[in-house]
Amino acid sequence: MGGRDDISWDDLKRMVADLIAAGQENARLIQELRESGKETDRRMQETDRRLQETDQLIRELRESGKETDRRMQETDRRMQETDQLIRELRESGKETDRRMQETYRRMQETGQLIRELRESSKETDRQMQETARQIRELKRQLGALGNRLGQFVQDMVQPAVVRLFQARGIPVHRVYPNALAKNDEGEAILEIDLLVINGDHAIAVECKSRLTSEDVDEHLDRLARFKACFTEHADKILHGAVAAMGAPEEVIRYAERQGLYVLVQADDDVVLRNRPDFEPKSW
């Protein structure tokens, strides 16, 4: 025990102290590894949360149109690749950092794709607004054309109505174009294209470029309201007539069954298309 190569008590204490210090260092390293594992789990949970949010945004963007659908399919494909990468990351410890960087890069690409999709949606909205504007302009032009055609028919019918109705035994002699009835506030409540009258009779004529059954029904509604709106003519025998550049035979007969005179253009003239035994309705 007293030889030069024997371990002294002090040496033994130092060795024990070194072993204890090494154990503590190992315990510290193990704790750090556990904390690193917790941080890795936290990052994985954060990645899952972001991927879930991205999925939600993708589902909302799918409603934006065909081009959006195509891009969303591409996003789904990339997200599936990301899911696959995350599963691989969970199975691997050595390359976690490298794969997390790859995931981050792919998330940036997804964000860029989402920004592109938003810009595409804005362009789609702009094109829809332009289409709506063009439709409004087309409606305005068609309305103006319809008004010009209606005025053309009215100008053709006006000189002929007195002659035609006098030939039917109705002694009318005055024609008022665009007869307008107003309420006490001065607001227009009813307009008649041509109002043909004499002392006892009044004929309200509606002029159209091409007559439809809907036009006939609308004029019947005017006739029903006429005397309440034109009170100065309430004591007159009221008849109704429709005039047009053209009208299908079934529409002519429909108007006739409703008790209306039907005037239609024939070459450069206007003729009555009612049957010889036609009896007009009185309102």
Tell me the distance between the termini: 143 Å
- What portion of residues is helical? 55-70%
**DSSP strand tally:** 6
Fraction of residues in β-strands? 15-25%
Give the count of structural domains: 2
Q: Which outline best applies?
A: rod-shaped
Lateral arrangement of strands in the main beta sheet:
1-2-3-4-5-6
Radius of gyration using CA atoms only: 45 Å
Contiguous low-pLDDT stretches (5 residues minimum) are: 141-150
* Elements, N to C (H/E): HHHEEEHEHEE
Q: Count of helices?
A: 5
Overall pLDDT confidence: 84
Largest sheet: 6 strands, mixed
Q: Structural class of the helix and strand makeup?
A: alpha/beta
Would you give an account of this structure?
The protein is of the alpha/beta class. The protein has 2 domains: 9-126, no CATH class; 168-272, Trna Endonuclease, Chain: A, domain 1 (3-Layer(aba) Sandwich), CATH 3.40.1350.10. It is 63% helix and 17% strand. The protein has 5 helices and 6 strands; from the N terminus they run H-H-H-E-E-E-H-E-H-E-E. The chain has helices at residues 9-61, 66-91, 96-167, 213-229, 249-257; strands at 174-182, 188-197, 201-210, 237-246, 261-266, 269-272. The chain has a 6-stranded mixed sheet with strand order 1-2-3-4-5-6, with helices on both faces. A hairpin with a 3-residue loop joins strand 2 (188-197) and strand 3 (201-210). Helix 1 runs antiparallel to helix 2 and helix 2 runs antiparallel to helix 3 (96-167). The longest helix is centred in the middle third of the chain and has 72 residues, at 96-167. Mean pLDDT is 84; it is low at 141-150.
